[in-house]
Design a protein that fits this description.
This protein is mainly β. It folds into 2 domains: 106 residues, Immunoglobulin-like (Sandwich); 100 residues, Immunoglobulin-like (Sandwich). The protein has 2 helices and 18 strands. It is elongated and about 75 Å long. Belongs to the type II cytokine receptor family. It comes from Mesembrinibis cayennensis.
């Protein structure tokens, strides 16, 4: 029995946590301390905070990986959720490891906007698109994150003559089309943008760099 207890403890999943980007929410965990855990499989359950019964996640029942997609199970984005994981190896089951409480609306990371650059002779025109959520409208198009939050866009310009790292904030606001004027012909400029959520005081990562020579 002691050996079993040791095995139970050593295969128990660790660091169970939700990670979420634009409401694509996955549960992650790390394997236990057992040295030979190759044949370990994992079982995932989830529930809404306050409910008494846990739901099995069928796609993540007896899996070998360390990640489980719970995007559709956490689609009520204002609700708080929990996930939990247990492991089995050689017929022995660990106890459950619980995640922290996870509320998608509050905790999801927002992605950067999609940036399209159109340039004329002394100016750059940018078209910005909010990142998309995984949830769909009746017609099938994905609902943008701007439906869920009041988003601002932050646009940065890098003049490659001056310094790679010198990013200048040239615009912050809600416009989807932005014109940056009074630029020098023949100079290479790079544009990067972020999404900012004032209510949560949270910024996205930078968008990928769009570079252009006027």
């Amino acid at each position: 029995v002691l050996e079993n207890q040791d095995l139970q403890d050593s295969i128990k999943p660790q660091k169970v946590e939700f990670r979420s980007l634009n409401f694509n929410s996955t549960l992650h965990w790390q394997p236990g301390t057992a040295r030979d855990a190759r044949d370990t499989v994992y079982f995932v359950q989830y529930k809404v905070y306050g409910q008494s019964t846990w739901q099995n996640k069928d796609d993540c029942w007896g899996i070998q990986g360390h990640v489980c997609d719970l995007t559709s199970e956490t689609s009520d984005i204002q609700e708080p959720y929990y996930g939990r994981v247990k492991a089995a190896s050689a017929g022995v089951y660990s106890s459950w490891s619980l995640s922290c409480r996870f509320t998608p609306w509050r905790e999801t990371m927002i992605g950067p906007p999609t940036v399209t650059v159109v340039h004329s002779n002394k100016s750059i025109i940018l078209k910005l698109q909010a990142p998309r959520s995984p949830y769909k409208r009746k017609r099938g198009s994905q609902i943008p994150m701007s439906n869920y939050y009041d988003l601002l866009y932050q646009v940065f310009i890098i003049n490659n003559l001056l310094n790679e790292q010198h990013r200048v904030l040239v615009y912050e606001g809600k416009d989807k089309v932005i014109k940056i004027e009074d630029l020098r012909p023949g100079v290479s400029y790079c544009i990067m943008a972020k999404t900012y959520v004032p209510m949560l005081d949270r910024s996205s990562a930078y968008s990928s760099r769009q570079c252009t020579v006027l």
